[in-house]
Queue: 2 jobs
Job 1
Amino acid sequence: MFKLKATIIKDIRILLRDKVGISLMFIMPIILVVVVTSIQNSTFQLVNKNKLSIIINNSDTGQASKQLIKAINKIGMFKASQVSGDKTEQQIAEAMHQHDAMLGIIIPSNFSAKVAAKSKSVAGKALTSFGLQGDPVKNVGDVDPLTVYYNPILQDNIRLSVQGALRSALQLVESRETLRSLYFSINEKQLPESLENEMLNNKTAINEIPVSKDGTRTTPNATQHNVPAWTIFAMFFIIMSLGGSVVREKISGSFIRLKTLPTNYFVGLLSKQITYLVVTMLQAAVIFSMGIWLFPFLGLPALNLPSDVLALIIVTVVCGWCAVSYAMCVGVFAQTQEQANGFGAVSIVILASIGGLMVPSFAMQGFFKSAANLSPMHWCLQAYYTLFLEGGKLKDVINNIIPLLIITLLLQLVTFVGLKRKNLI
């Protein structure tokens, strides 16, 4: 025990001298989690607060175009402003730049006339199918399409959401006109506004309920997603310090000198693992504390810890041990400190990418979806998400902990074989 204590003190002193390594292990993840959470929180609140700016060039003077603009404003995800006069594509681009708008819409001059003609045609066909005498059915062409200009930086998922919202607004306008034409053909008088609103607004409500294992219905936020993910990233980034430390001890001959001393090399390996495991626990404690107490002051949602604290501690320990094992494995096989740092940094980014930290695993296809199971970060992330997002207990994360322990033991075995082949032990 005395030998282990002395070795741990030695490793702590070496760690404290590595100012750059400490910065990479603590300061960088803290900045990263704040920046990424802030950006993603803005994306989550796009519909409610940060509305997309849009300019509308209405070349039509009829009622249908006015109803369309009113419907677009009611959607809630747009901040609309109108520009007058017929605009060319170049003029629309300039107007978008002047208004700092992400979208531009041109409503054609014959929009209302086309919508009215199409509505009468549909109403006539409906009356004929009912066996009633309606207006003669005429072949009416489709309504001229709306022209939508968008800034190329607009992401595809947001652009598809915009398309869906505009289609809903168009459908509302066309349905309103068809309903009015049908009512007028039957009753020969205008449709009462109260009846029109009642018929058009008679929609089935949609209740969105997050599914959780503990029965709670707390809606997840950007903090719940990002803090666990980037905590894992911070844990594995100890490779920049631990991997370099192992390489330095190899080069300096520390492993060889251990053979001449009345001690065991397992003491040195165990010392490093304990020291850096404590570091990973400190990383998790610091980042979780920021999520709980600092984020509300920055205008971000606060982090809600899982109800099963014991499960959270166990998952954190297992994740930290896996990160330590990976760092030691890289350090054993690297020939120089530069190799350890370079390969370590790149491999961590790759493992994070295929593990679901940067792109959700469910969005992956083919090979990458299967490769995610090989990344230890994937199992770490799934365990944390089960606790933070699904309200799971310890029994619910066992299926994530077991693969993580298997990967950790394999890394320990590879590290041992590497030390044996290099005659370091």
Note: The CA atoms of residues 290 and 297 lie 10 Å apart.
Job 2
Amino acid sequence: MPQTHSTDILIVGGGIAGLWLNARLRRLGYSTLLVERDSLGGGQSVKSQGIIHGGAKYALHGALTGASEAIADMPRRWREALAGSGELDLCGVRILSESHYLWSPGTLAGNLTSFFASKAVRGRVDQVKGSDLPPALQHPKFKGKVYRLAELVLDVPSLIARLAELAGDSLVAASLIEPLRDNGELCGLLIDGMPVRAQRIVLSAGAGTAELLASLGVNQPAQQLRPLHMVLAKGPALKPLYAHCLGGGPKPRVTVTTHPAADGQWVWYLGGDLAEADGVARDAASQIKAAQQEMAELLPWVDQAQTRWATLRVDRAEPAQSGLVRPDNAFLADQGRLLVGWPTKLALAPDLSERVCAALQRDGIRPGQHPAAPPLPRPPLARPAWEELLP
């Protein structure tokens, strides 16, 4: 049997949720190891649009909801971290846009206009015009309305890189993760055959969590997957746009974020209702055609002749909910020494971390003394989807 190693907290899953938690725990003095089977951020994280939501998109029907209120404080917490004064020091992470926008191609419904002016969202939303409009909407033919949200959009690859930097030597690449038991009780994990004992084991592996739970013989909590069929567009005529386009329903008609490609061009990354139910049912060619028609209708002045298109399927992993509804908050469940979590959204990674820290404090888990682990293979950083699909 290889030499047994120990740590305070063993984290499985190197997406943004796991990396944030790892950095937070290390800052609090805990010894940690984070295990990743593929690349850092290579699951849902690097496929995220990078929006740090503040909840306004969940109130499009004209009233605040549990989801809109649960996430309302996240932009502030992220901004503090990005300034180096928050729970983590994320200085150096690239901010793509200081604001996200709501954009109506026509006139907003009266109740929505009055809602935006109401006390409930005052300070979260304000209307912009003229030179304050996003570059892609600064055209004489644009006749809609635009509202600026107190949210921001991050360059996710640079965020992953910074969180990996904060991890120091705690990151471990492993292809095989198995339970380590003591008298039938889970006490750690076998990482490519190396026994690692831990006071607590945290699963934050996104869609991989269900497989990990099965390998550990744990049935609950159950996992659900809500699929998306995202669209990417890359071309010389594209200008920055970070906005939800309103369609009159409870969800954005399309959500656009813009990302820098290595060759200097901009990439539009399209989600929202376009990527959901009907989009999931379409094949790639049909989804691209639908996206082309949508953007031609919404932004007819943008010359798409040289634009290249691709699609990307994403499975959003969450705790199972009745009717596949989206959970309002980050989720954490206790299974003895095992903690199982899903942030449910990028913006809620700090919320998941807070819940883990509260569970450790509740259980009296304090930083211990552990001999240094031997040099271990480090997982690579994930590449952005647009560099893979539209090089």
Note: DSSP finds ten helices and 19 strands in the chain.
